[in-house]
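A quick aside before the break. I want you to see a complete sequence-to-structure record at least once, exactly as it would be stored in a machine-readable document. Don't worry about memorizing anything.
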Amino acid sequence: MPLRDHFRPPVSKRASWEGFHGQWPAMIVQHLVRVLPEGYVAEPRVHLGPYFEIDVSTFASADAPVQTAAVGNGGVATAPWTAARPSLEVEADWPDQYEYEVLVFDQERQRRLVAAVELVSPANKDRQESRRAFVTKCAALLQQGVAISIVDLVTTRQFNLYAELLDWIGQHDPALGTEPSAIYAASVRFQKPRRTLLQTWPCPLHMGQPLPTLPLWLSADAAVPLELEVSYEDTCRVLRIA
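That is the input. The structure line, written in tokens, reads:
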């Protein structure tokens, strides 16, 4: 079945891209569960806006009273410490991180994250800060040994985040040409047998054409098929996108 443009009429008038991006991770999980080996589990994740992880234990004693010297019986009261005025105080617009993804965990290794499918949203491509945030997140996952697959159907922003990811780590894919496609899918991993190797499986996408099947790597020697076309069509069917 053909790839649709979810960001322009007529499709954008019948269904929102937000609804499609929110549903697709769940459909990918439904298909992955059929091919993942025993001991692996996939979970959909959707997050809109700023995202911070806080270690609650760090703040376990945050409400403890400030210690001061006792007053009376020879004690001396200490004045509260006051910080100096900041050298810089400006309004800062922190880029929102819109995340539509599927995470794959190895339950045999204490739910270690081994693979991630990242669905690009317009917010990931709308400005340089947002693109940098997406690229650095992907680079950090790769450095931790997590294989990633990037799927970008956003036709309203002419940037290729796979190409920017390669540029971030000091590499270039000659197959991209001088003007990389704005819509694409790519699997990327670092392979470390005796030396670190960057391995990629890129594929430009085209309107009216089926989506590819990419390798989703679970370990150095094991991969399962990420059948984008099947999960894509199931998502369109559920949302009644013709």
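Two observations worth writing down. Residues 36 and 86 are 52 Å apart (CA to CA). Residues 17-32 form the longest helix (16 residues). We'll return to this after the break.
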